[in-house]
Write a structure and sequence with these properties.
CATH class: Alpha Beta
Number of domains: 1
Helix content: 10-25%
CATH superfamily: Fumarylacetoacetase-like, C-terminal domain
Strand content: 25-35%
Structural class: alpha+beta
Shape: globular
Number of strands: 18
Order of helices and strands: EEEHEEEEEEEHHEEHEEHEEEE
Distance between the termini: 41 Å
Bound molecules: manganese (II) ion
CATH topology: Fumarylacetoacetate hydrolase, domain 2
Strand order of the largest sheet: 4-3-15-8-9-12
Number of helices: 5
Radius of gyration: 17 Å
Oligomer: single chain
CATH architecture: Alpha-Beta Complex
């Protein structure tokens, strides 16, 4: 068997303390997972009834940050700092009680968003792909293996732009904690080794401009730095 042309390289992330890289299969994300952010986005009520999921292409990944191009077709390009969960095992209908067995490790990422396009799509009830799944929309740090850190339930998650803290929370404030995100997502998709899950952003989202420097941190676990170019 041969391909008609060379397939593109598999997107991947470095792993702290290892020469091996983590091969990325899909990138999932949950929306409205911190009450204060859901409110700043205009949600009248914040409920755990219906988790909101969307995806980004695996090759939207920007490993370890660095230079991130300002995207086309937007005048309101937003940062959303998020803890990122990396899966080493998958499955369907995974029980929350066993969901952490699937986790390889953790990182920190930016769910970059064309906010103006997202608002327009929301208003018309249209899909969010052009607002969320564009090229270079998923900068993610090197991963830290769970065998080193355990599975964090409390950790400071923060983002500074040009040295000024814009987003600052504790992951303990997530409406759906990691085991429940994995359980809910696996009702909709068969999860696979290599999947990444963005776990939602806290309050304080805002615009980025060319030249802005970002520094995202999941305290004690991961750090991501770069610049909008
Ligand atoms: Mn997000």
């Amino acid at each position: 068997m041969s391909f008609a042309f060379d397939p593109l390289a598999i997107p991947s992330l470095p792993i702290h303390g290892s020469d091996q890289r983590f091969p990325v299969h899909r990138i999932y994300a949950i929306g409205r997972n911190y009450a204060a952010h859901a409110k700043e986005m205009g949600a009248q009520t914040v409920s755990r009834a219906n988790p909101v999921f969307f995806t980004k292409p695996a090759d939207a990944l920007v490993p370890e940050g660095g230079n991130v191009p300002y995207p086309t077709a937007t005048h309101d390009f937003h940062h959303e700092v998020e803890m990122v969960v990396a899966l080493a095992k998958g499955g369907r209908d995974i029980d929350a009680a066993h969901a952490l067995d699937c986790v390889f490790g953790y990182g920190v990422g930016l769910d970059l968003t064309r906010r103006d396009l997202q608002a327009a799509m929301k208003a018309k009830g249209l899909p969010w792909d052009v607002a969320k799944g564009f090229d270079h929309s998923a900068p993610v740090s090197a991963l830290r293996a769970a065998r080193e850190t355990g599975h964090p339930t409390h950790a400071r998650l923060s983002l500074a732009i040009n040295g000024e803290v814009r987003q600052d929370t504790d992951i303990a404030d997530m409406l759906f904690p990691v085991p429940e995100i994995i359980a809910e997502l696996s009702k909709l998709f068969e999860l696979k080794p290599g999947d990444l899950i963005f776990t939602g952003t806290p309050a304080g989202v805002g615009p980025l401009a060319r030249g802005d420097r970002f520094r995202a941190e999941l305290k004690g676990i991961a750090m991501l730095e770069g610049r909008i170019v």
